[in-house]
Amino acid sequence: MIFLRNIHAVRAASCSIFLLFALALSAQERSERALVDRLKELNNNAEGEALQRTADRVLDSLPSGPSALRQDAEFYLALALQLNGDALEAVRHAQQAVLTARAMGDTSRILRSMYLIMKLNVEGHHYDEADRNRRDNYELARTYGKDTLELVRALNAMGSMYNRLERSDSAEQFYREGLRVLGERPDPIRVVMMSNLASTISLSGKHEESARLHRQVLQELDSTNLRTRAWAYSSLGESLLLAGRYREAIAAFDTSDAVNQRCGNALDLAIDLGELRAQCMDSLGDIAGAYFWTKHVRDLQDTLYERSMSEQLVELEKKFETRLNKEEIQRLDAENEQKAERIRAQKLQLYGSLAVAALALGGVLLVWRNLRQRRKHQVVLEGLNSELHEQKARIEEINGLLRLKVLRTQMDPHFIHNCLNAIRALSLKGEHERAEEYLEGFARILRNVLEHSVRDRITLDEEIAFLNDYVRLEQLRLGNDLTWSITADDALLNEEPQVPSLLVQPFVENAIWHGLAPKQGPKHLAIHFFQVDGVVTCRVQDNGVGRTEKAPTPGRTSLGLKLTGERLELLTERMRSAGGFRVEDLKDPGGTPAGTLVEMRFAG
Q1: For residues 22 and 6, what is the distance between their CA atoms, to the nearest angstrom?
Q2: pLDDT tens for each residue of 230-258
Q3: From the CB of residue 604, how many other CB atoms can be counted at a distance below 10 Å?
């Protein structure tokens, strides 16, 4: 009986221990699920800083070795760093998430992490690396075959890759395969793939099917997701535009604009809608409508640029303040370290005074130690001073760039204003065909102006091509009386030099509008690029009425020339070399004005 009672006691104790172990394991699983749910919530709310802190704490609390919670923490830490703009660290932690998932043997987690690495490479414009990630992800998902959603994502990524490579047939094949694999399963990726497929087949000329798919996307989209619906209506309008159904396209663009205004009026979408409506109006022969939307787009672009400049200035101020705070913390740490060193030195002196025999030796050692610390501190201080000088130089460089960008934002609207005035003048004269031709040329040259305006310098070939387009545009206004030549020395062309962007055009514009336009008879403009003492020089010469023929309005100066002069001074200051321009009034043998010559020397 005693033996049986002992057996029952052992069984009861074993059951109790097993129950306690099971309860502890269940509590741990609930705790881990709660942590993962918290990470997902922070990521969905785009709370980058909080997500990074939480993921870091989770990683610090975990023991070494692969685990599901460690893999989740690495994955969400990569997402947090992506939100916070630290792309390099984001890629590193995403790669760590892949390694952890491989150690666990969890293919679904591997696919999820590899997909994130691909997205990070796309955002960083590392397209070749991103394409390699897409292929690896697709091969693994296809071989695995058990995770339908990850396979569909991989198919969508492959379609995007072939779209970038302009292989629309292959892209269409992958998008259709992804939709087939997904079936009727409700998932946000389904709407994304239908939208991508619609845009792809529209480029292949299948406009009706594209429009049908875009309408299906609108039906399946969440009605509360206004931002996505606005873009979907815009895509539908583009398909209708390519199909030649201009009025239906305009109606879709109007709906997109209305939805966009309800959800904050995103300027990038508003600009796209304005450009697309201008195309529709132009195709319908509505020149006034096309002009209205073109001007509206330019106003929105100016607003977007001003907002971008303000955001950049705020970002620079934040970075500068952060750096100052870090330097202050470093300085305080150095002071604390110095105080601690002094305290230790005092203790050493006190201990040395207790031992008369070791006093001399202790004094020598203390002096030597202090001298060594002083030399180290001197090196540290010199390093800090050097860093401060470098930071000051970088800040001055940033200020110069900002001043240069502000001047460029003033020059671009000045040029656009003159072109729009020319279009308006032709329209008022009733020359609608020339106005339409001028408008098409204006749209083409506007694209070049926008591309060049974000670059300090462009090649000489690009500048000559741009000037040819501009003068050809002005010839439509002035007629065949205007002839011109734009040349450059062969030796200079072979060197492929860089010249300041949008700098010569204001001088050419002044020569045409104020020199050649008032002249009766043949009008000729000559532009020549050459090199003097290693400095690229441009000469602009016309046979117009000259500057004395038409006196300027008192109290007014040419805004284009004033801004160009300021921009040339900035470039000269930045490049540390000579630069400038001179204006010469040409006379015939009888002293009558015979044109104007402008010569510019570009800072090297």
Answers
A1: 24
A2: 888 888 888 888 888 888 888 888 888 88
A3: 15
